[in-house]
Amino acid sequence: MLILGIESATSQVGVAVGGHEGVLASAHSARDRRHAENLTPQIRFVCEQARVELSEIGCVAVDIGPGLFTGLRVGIASAMAVAHGLGVPMIGVSSLDLGAFAVEHSRRLIVPCYDARRGEVFAAQYRSVPGGVQRVSDPTVATPDELAAELMAMSEDILMVGDGSERYRDVFGTISHIEFAGTSLQYPSARSLVELSHPKALREEFVAPNEIVPMYLRLPDAEINWKTRASA
Amino acid sequence: MTKRELILGIETSCDETAAAVVANGHDVLSNVVSSQIDIHARYGGVVPEVASRAHVEMMTPVIAQAMVEAGVDKDDIDAIACTVGPGLIGSLLIGVSSAKALSLVWDKPFVAVNHLEAHLYSSFLEEPDLELPVVVLLVSGGHTMLILMEGHGQYRLLGQTLDDAAGEAYDKVARYLGLGYPGGPIIDKMAMDGDPHAITFPRAMVKDGYDFSFSGLKTSVVNYVRKNPDVADVDVAASFQEAVVDVLLTKARRAVKEFGATGLCLAGGVAANSSLRERTLDLAIEDGINGFVPSRSMCTDNAAMIAAAGWWRYHSDGPASLDHGADSSLRFPSYA
Ligand SMILES: [Zn+2]
Q1: Does A89 touch chain B (CB under 8 A)?
Q2: Rg of chain B taking only CA atoms, in angstroms
Q3: B68 touches chain A (CB under 8 A)
Q4: B61 — contact with chain A (CB < 8 Å)?
Q5: By C-alpha distance, which of A193, A199, A203, A198 is closest to A19?
Q6: B254-280 tens-digit pLDDT
Q7: Distance to chain A for B186, nearest Cα, Å
Q8: How far is CA B108 from CA B74, B114, B192, B316, in A?
């Protein structure tokens, strides 16, 4: 089955297409956060490069976040429309899963960490298991200092991946048992998305387009204020 | 008979997720609007982040419903038209992304539509043979514009608000009086039980030019209520509304005369206001011009008007590129 992967949770926007032969074509761009402008042409380009007709796509995989809200939604809305338009099911994958998957063979505790802006990061903990990675903590949004304190208290070696760990290297870099995957893996990729979704597609772990739920991890400010006022 | 061309229209510029199928720019086959008013009411106004989240949830089901209600499938659609601005950027992007993605997978032309221009086309949905030139009074929560429409795509912006939009003034006055949100329908309803001549609020700039100003009116309502705490809310509502409608229609009427227009059209959310509608029809009879007041559901944001404007734009400009983005401050396409 051919999978179209759409990923736009960070400063990067990417599309890949592939299946049991692996990834057939992919494109990623990260300049000026032109997610909405770039995404549809990227889908067309990637399918042309892979010599895949859109009608051959059997499922649409999408990064559901956490990530930067506006860009993230461009990817999710586009992916839902493609799936709906083609009448195919979807697979939703977290950006944190994609980050961990990119370093799946590490024997360290894997901590994907993406820049959430406003002085915060999105993060979760993963372990390498046969055939992939397994999440061992809930995805959270936290300040780099809060996350650093949590990681500092852990006795095992840690591998951090993602633009959040790069941006706050001055905070995490002081902890001796942390290593960094580096800038080449700082964004979740559409390639990883297609690779990670393939076994899920074989197991038919599908959802309908209207069942995709974005993982925001943060309430809108207005809702936070309203709840505070309501409980006061 | 010429071929029937079907446009799928998509609109997400503010807090309505909407999709519609319209034939030949005026024949509405379906018009689905999912309103978020209830979601935003507790915040006293539209919250952009909340709106964007709701659009993502509703967009695909709303499109699906518009297709089903129209009894068409993708092969029947000739083009997909979508609002690209102005509006809330996070909201616009949901519609634009969905429309472009559908346009790619269904292999249909994508048509970029200006939301303000689309409001003008709400009149053509019910009156396809509307005789031009007409003066259009476009009044909504975000805009107050007086436009001379000389032909399709040919507009002259005669004037607009220098501060608050008319709908904004309604919301602010309603909030001050503690009446709730949205202010327009609430004040409209209360005004029916009040005396519009109880209080004489100022009619700002009523004599000069075609521009509007509503922030002074809002201030004088606040001051009046502060000085006269026992005044009946219904009288304040009726007198405030009377002042707004007076200014809007005095200028619109003058524009019709000056430019020799055949009629006056209302457009935009505030055009759902009962007093504005009644008085527009009255003055049309008095002045011997055509008064056109679209049905309420066509005045507020909807996708049928996007499909209608999209049909004209498609024929005049052709399709837009798939790397088109959204522009939150897109300007009205006026040549003057
Ligand atoms: Zn509008």
Answers
A1: no
A2: 20
A3: no
A4: yes
A5: A198
A6: 999 999 999 999 999 999 999 999 999
A7: 22
A8: 9, 19, 48, 17
